[in-house]
């Protein structure tokens, strides 16, 4: 437990870049997704923290926290329906067989309707 706590402190105590200032630490992406749905510009950002973030950072030997960017896209003609574009990324990842660290990115999309109906009628 002490090792996990120390790793979390190291991630949170790392130097803050200018674009990190608006990023809140979150245990998973759900609060960031909800914030994007509620934001007037349809965007939200965060930094993943906790045991999962520590495990991923150690696994990839990364030198930065795991950043989360969420954007809403109007993909459907139905009111209140769209797509969340979710991106996780880290700097300084050293992949197996590589000699120089690079940026590692994972993107995925989630279709949604605020009223719970399945999205239909693409634009």
Q: Secondary structure elements and their pairing?
A:
Elements: H1 2-13, E1 24-26, H2 30-38, E2 43-48, H3 51-60, E3 66-73, E4 81-93, E5 102-113
Parallel strand pairs: 1-2
Antiparallel strand pairs: 2-3, 3-4, 4-5
Question: Features of this protein?
Answer:
disordered N terminus; single chain; elongated; 123 residues; alpha+beta; five-stranded mixed sheet; 5 strands
Task: Please characterize this protein's 3D structure.
With 123 residues, this protein is α+β, with helices and mostly antiparallel strands. The chain is 25% helix and 34% strand. It contains 3 helices and 5 strands, in the order αβαβαβββ. The chain has a 5-stranded mixed β-sheet.
What's this model, at a glance?
With 123 residues, the protein is α+β, with helices and mostly antiparallel strands.
Main β-sheet, spatial strand arrangement: 1-2-3-4-5
Ends apart, CA distance between termini: 50 Å
Shape: elongated
Q: What low-confidence regions span 5 or more consecutive residues with pLDDT below 50?
A: 1-18
Provide the gyration radius in Å. 17 Å
Total number of helices: 3
Strand content: 25-35%
Structural class: alpha+beta
Biggest β-sheet description: 5 strands, mixed
Which range best describes the helical content: under 10%, 10-25%, 25-40%, 40-55%, 55-70% or over 70%? 25-40%
Name the helix and strand elements from N-terminus to C-terminus, one letter apiece.
Answer: HEHEHEEE
Number of strands: 5
Q: What's the pLDDT, averaged over the residues?
A: 81
């Amino acid at each position: 437990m002490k090792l996990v706590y120390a790793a979390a402190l190291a991630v949170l105590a790392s130097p803050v870049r200018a674009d990190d200032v608006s990023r809140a630490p979150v245990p998973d992406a759900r609060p960031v997704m909800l914030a994007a749905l509620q934001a007037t510009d349809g965007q939200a950002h965060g930094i993943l923290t906790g045991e999962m973030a520590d495990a991923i950072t150690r696994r990839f030997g990364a030198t930065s926290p795991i950043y989360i960017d969420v954007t809403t896209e109007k993909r459907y003609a139905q009111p209140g329906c769209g797509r969340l574009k979710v991106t996780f990324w880290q700097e300084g990842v050293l992949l197996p067989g590589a000699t120089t660290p690079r940026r590692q990115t994972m993107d995925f999309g989630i279709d949604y309707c605020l009223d719970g109906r399945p999205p239909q009628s693409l634009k």
